[in-house]
Amino acid sequence: MIVIVDERQLVKDGYHSLFDREGVASAGFGPSEFGEWVETAADDDLKSVRAFLIGDCSSDMVSPRRIRDRSGAPVIALSDQNSLENTLKLFEAGVDDVVRKPVHIREILARIAAIRRRAHEDANFTEIGALRIYLDGRDPEINGQLLPLPRRERRILEYLASNSGRRVTKTQVFNAIYGIFDEEVEENVVESHISKLRKKLREKLGYDPIDSKRFLGYRLIVG
């Protein structure tokens, strides 16, 4: 999930629509409500955040360093001002990157992926036997051949890969894929997506790489 912080509702709605087209969950906050949320949100909710995008808002209300106290997700400033002074000010405030608008949504996602790679010092893919899972939005490969997946199934596979070896609950998967504030979709939709994903992986791999246990959740089998 991507969290967008901006005083302008039109901006938040616009980014939400663009991320949705890419199959990425997002949530928008005004500066004051965001400050309260980031300090009181449950740890599992914050773990579902891939990045924070900070737009037009007061630095007194939205502090990157306060975000860093609760989450290690990238903090990216969306800047309307094309000036060196403003860019340096934003970096000094603690952001990980500054993006000048207008910017394509895929560039934002690419920057998020690059920051996360540097932070974790790992590659942008995970390999499990013949399966290669990319963490930047590309379809996975099996024995070098692309396995086209619907965006929700692809995002679930990416999320499981990013938590490789660890078990995640249905709620955690839902929050990461649909966002923690999506009340229009039932959480049980995760079971349907994972069932379809497992069937496709079994057909290509000859085995099921997703281990599931009732009440405990899902885990990608890494070895």
Q: Explain this structure to me?
A:
The protein has 223 residues and is of the alpha/beta class. The protein folds into two domains: 2-120, Response regulator (Rossmann fold), CATH 3.40.50; 125-220, Winged helix-like DNA-binding domain superfamily/Winged helix DNA-binding domain (Arc Repressor Mutant, subunit A), CATH 1.10.10. The chain is 44% helix and 18% strand. It contains nine helices and eleven strands. The longest helix has 17 residues, at 189-205. The protein starts with a strand and ends with a strand.
Structure summary:
With 223 residues, the protein is of the alpha/beta class.
Ends: how far apart?
Answer: 28 Å
Number of domains: 2
Architecture per CATH nomenclature, i.e. the level-2 architecture of the largest domain:
3-Layer(aba) Sandwich
Q: Please, how many helices?
A: 9
Task: Summarize the helix and strand pattern as letters.
Answer: EHEHHEHEHEHEEEEHHHEE
Helix content: 40-55%
- Tell me the major beta sheet: 5 strands, parallel
Q: How is the largest sheet built, in terms of strand order?
A: 2-1-3-4-5
Report the structural category: alpha/beta
GO cellular component, one term: cytosol
GO molecular function: phosphorelay response regulator activity; transcription cis-regulatory region binding
Organism: Borborobacter arsenicus
Protein name: Response regulator transcription factor
Distinctive features:
single chain; 2 domains; 223 residues; 44% helix; globular; Arc Repressor Mutant, subunit A; five-stranded parallel beta sheet
